[in-house]
Design brief:
GO molecular function, one term: tRNA(Ser) (uridine(44)-2'-O-)-methyltransferase activity
Keywords: Cytoplasm, Methyltransferase, S-adenosyl-L-methionine, Transferase, tRNA processing
Enzyme class: transferase
Structural class: alpha/beta
Number of helices: 5
CATH topology of the largest domain: Rossmann fold
Strand content: 15-25%
Radius of gyration: 20 Å
Distance between the termini: 46 Å
Subcellular location: Cytoplasm
CATH class of the largest domain: Alpha Beta
InterPro entries: SAM-dependent_MTases_sf, tRNA_uracil_MeTrfase
Length: 248
C-alpha cells in the first residue's frame, strides 16, 4: 500500500484559519433587512466587517473565498475555476469560475468573472502624497457639513482613500479616463473625483440629503439600474458597493 498522505504546516494553517475566522458575515437570505428608510426597495443580503492581519493573510483569505465559496455563500455547494490568467500591463489576475448551487432543481449554475487587483500597482509614496493632499483640501469641510446619519470619520476618509488610489492609477494614463460609480450612495467619491477634474457621474436608486449640499455640484443621478437596458460608455465602472447590486 502506498502512502498518499500530505504534510501540512500546522502553524501556517492555523494563521490562515484565524485570519479567515475574522470574516463572520450575517446572512439575510430568508428575512431581508432594509438598508435604510430612505431606500425602502433595497435589501441587505450579506453584512460583514472585514479585518485582517497583513496583506499576505488577506490574499490567503481571497484564495479561500475563490476556491471554497460555500464558506461565504450558503446557497453555493462549490466552484470550478474554468480559467485563470494574468494581465500583461498591470499586476492583475483574471479568473473565470462556475458556481454550483446546492439546490440544483431550483437554482441555476452561475459563471462569475473575478478580477483581483493588487495595490502594488500603485506607488506607495505617490499614493501617500495624493491622500495627504486630498485630506487637507476636503476632510475638515466635509466633516463639518456632514448631513448623513452615518459616521463621517468612516465614510469621508474611506472615500478619500479610494479616490487617492484611483487617481494614483489614472495619473499614468495619457488621457484622463471617464467613470461611472454604480450605487454611489452619498456621492462623496464622485464629488471628490469631479473636483479633481475627472469626468464622470454616480447613480443610486435614491438621492441623499448631502447631494444638495455639495459645492460645486457633482454629477449624481437618482435612478434604478436595469442590467439589460442601462448603457454605460465610461472608461471605468466603479462598484465600491457592488455587492448591493446583485441578487445574492
Amino acid at each position: 500500500m502506498e502512502d498518499y498522505s500530505v504534510k501540512v504546516n500546522l502553524s501556517n494553517e492555523k494563521k490562515r484559519l484565524d485570519a479567515y475566522s475574522l470574516y463572520s458575515p450575517n446572512f439575510y437570505f430568508e428575512s431581508f433587512q432594509k438598508t435604510s428608510d430612505s431606500s425602502p426597495e433595497w435589501r441587505t443580503l450579506i453584512e460583514a466587517n472585514i479585518s485582517c492581519f497583513t496583506t499576505k493573510e488577506f490574499k490567503k483569505i481571497i484564495d479561500l473565498w475563490i476556491n471554497e465559496p460555500s464558506r461565504v455563500y450558503p446557497p453555493i455547494e462549490n466552484s470550478v475555476v474554468l480559467s485563470k490568467s494574468t494581465s500583461e500591463n498591470i499586476d492583475q489576475v483574471l479568473i473565470l469560475r462556475k458556481l454550483i448551487p446546492k439546490r440544483k432543481k431550483v437554482d441555476l449554475e452561475l459563471s462569475e468573472n473575478i478580477t483581483i487587483n493588487s495595490t502594488d500597482t500603485v506607488n506607495k509614496s505617490q499614493y501617500d502624497e495624493i491622500y495627504a493632499n486630498l485630506k487637507e483640501k476636503y476632510a475638515s469641510k466635509l466633516v463639518e457639513n456632514w448631513q448623513e446619519k452615518t459616521d463621517p470619520s468612516k465614510f469621508i476618509f474611506e472615500d478619500l482613500a479610494i479616490a487617492s488610489w484611483l487617481i494614483s492609477i489614472w495619473s499614468s494614463y495619457k488621457k484622463k479616463p471617464s467613470f461611472v460609480d454604480l450605487g454611489c450612495g452619498n456621492g462623496l467619491l464622485v464629488y471628490i473625483l469631479n473636483c479633481e477634474g475627472f469626468v464622470g457621474y454616480g447613480i443610486d436608486q435614491s438621492s441623499r440629503k448631502i447631494w444638495s449640499l455639495f459645492d460645486p455640484k457633482p454629477s449624481l443621478i437618482a435612478s434604478t439600474i436595469t442590467p439589460f437596458s442601462t448603457v454605460l460608455k465610461n472608461d471605468w465602472i466603479i462598484g465600491n458597493h457592488a455587492d448591493e447590486l446583485v441578487p445574492w
